[in-house]
Amino acid sequence: MNPHRYALFPGCLMPTEQYALELSVRATLPALGVELVDLPGLSCCGEPMKSVNQTLTLYLSARSLAIAEKNHLSFFAPCPQCHLALHETNIILQKNPAMMDRINDMLKTEDLHYTGTTKIVHTVDLLHDIIGLDAIKKHVKHPLTGMKLVVHYGCQTIRPKELGRPDDSENPQKVEEILKTLGADPITDYPQKLDCCGAPLLPNKPETALTKTGQKLQAIQDLGAAGVVDLCPWCHKMLDSRQSKAGETVAAKLDLPILYLTQLLGVAIGIDPTKLGLDLNLSPIHKLNLTGDKK
Amino acid sequence: MTITDLTSMGEPQADVRAEINDRLKRLQHHASDYCYQCAKCTSGCEAHKLLELEPHKIVALLKRGHITELTNNDVIWTCMTCLKCRERCPQQVAPVEILFAAKNLAVQNGKELPGKYTAMLQSILGTGLLQEIQTVTTTTNATMTRDQLCLPPLSLPTDITKFQASIMAIAMQKP
């Protein structure tokens, strides 16, 4: 059996709006030998509801984990928020048997049972640690030569360290290493690298959320980066889709190409660009000449 | 009764409240023993720069047992959950977790959910996801949905009634 066989945990934002992420995940990972299984019955991971009712978050995550358990599969969660929620639920419920019993009582109605054996991987550890840079290198057909990119990791990808994040909390470098493998020349550090995109404030302080986005993008633009690589559908919604609005909040004309890591990976390993959702990015990604039109 | 009524004005749920109180008590004990108010959390706080959230003061309120002051203060809803405070506290106090517990308790106390939280909760209850399928615009100004992009159907709870019953039991049911 394929050792790289995972159930896809889509979450909410990717399958209802961030189609470029889903398209590029579904196109690139199988080319690297990953088999993605679509499980029926999944729901929101519950993370955005943690402020309202943490028990609800635990129930929603445990429910999905129980579905994966039933199918004897590990989860691949491309959204860092989902990855954190699923992972944290495992940790909290292992320490709180009473809560686990209560949730299992509710799961009975759907003929599910949670024990906490489901492993969860994210794009970063899947590519960097599991598939590995050497294997990725063998697939590179169109290297992103000299592309001066910066990485926006997003908060949940790296924090909190004690909850087993895909990369280091203070000096994450795995995505930069992946980009170097693809031939790019990433700027490995910049002062705002670990900062938030502002998306968690969308539900109740949308204006401040945009200011946060604008401030970070302006700093990156001043750095002279050619583009930004991101991982999280929430971050991408802010950095890409809302870039021009974010620019207004800091009185700057923002003009930065924003791409999902999986989109760039797809370009580099020679996936048909129409399968990577490149026409869904609203930021000026044409500036990177990814499809080589002008060559 | 609508979800808004149930979440913002509904009867308190005994077991959910008990769990939140337990959690707050544990956080309070830990903060009281370990937090020495160095304010490293506040110095790195993303919401501090824009919204004047001061996590070390949140911890101080909890240490002194001023729970009502905590839950009644709208500043608890300005946390961006960037998790830097939890990551960087030299004493392993997690102000972000105190804020989560305070917000949970505020909701239990009947505090109206700010912004879009009610709509998000309603959507999860209705379909299982935060929002319905959105139409997106391409760079050539065409509009697209999942189907047109040849993406497979959404994975959603197969028996929505059973799913809803559990969510109602956690988030909305009377004791």
How would you describe this protein?
Chain A contains 12 helices and 7 strands. With 295 residues, chain A is an alpha/beta fold. Chain B has helices spanning 3-9, 14-34, 40-44, 46-51, 55-63, 67-72, 84-88, 95-108, 117-127, 160-172; strands at residues 136-137, 143-144. A two-stranded antiparallel sheet of chain B has the order 1-2. Chain B is globular. In chain B, a hairpin with a 5-residue loop joins strand 1 and strand 2 (143-144). Chain B has 10 helices and 2 strands; from the N terminus they run αααααααααββα. The model of chain B has no long low-confidence stretch (mean pLDDT 91). The two termini of chain B are 16 Å apart. Chains A and B meet through helix 1, helix 2, helix 3, helix 5 and helix 9 of A and helix 2, helix 4, helix 7, helix 8 and helix 9 of B.
SSE topology sketch:
The complex is a heterodimer of chains A (295) and B (175).
Chain A: E1 5-8, H1 13-16, H2 19-31, E2 35-37, H3 54-70, E3 74-76, H4 80-95, H5 97-107, E4 120-121, H6 123-139, E5 149-152, H7 155-158, H8 174-181, H9 206-222, E6 227-230, H10 233-241, H11 243-249, E7 258-260, H12 261-268
Parallel strand pairs in A: 1-2, 1-3, 3-4, 5-6, 6-7
Helix pairs in contact in A: 2-12, 3-4, 3-5, 6-8, 9-11
Chain B: H1 3-9, H2 14-34, H3 40-44, H4 46-51, H5 55-63, H6 67-72, H7 84-88, H8 95-108, H9 117-127, E1 136-137, E2 143-144, H10 160-172
**Cα distance, first to last residue of chain A?**
42 Å
Question: Which geometry of chain B do the CA atoms define?
Answer: globular
Specify the structural class of chain B. Answer: mainly alpha
Low-confidence blocks of residues of chain B: none
Number of domains of chain A: 2
Secondary structure: number of strands of chain B: 2
Poorly predicted ranges of chain A: none
How many helical elements of chain A?
12
CATH topology group of the largest domain in chain B: Fumarate Reductase Iron-sulfur Protein, Chain B, domain 2
Whole-number tally of structural domains of chain B: 2
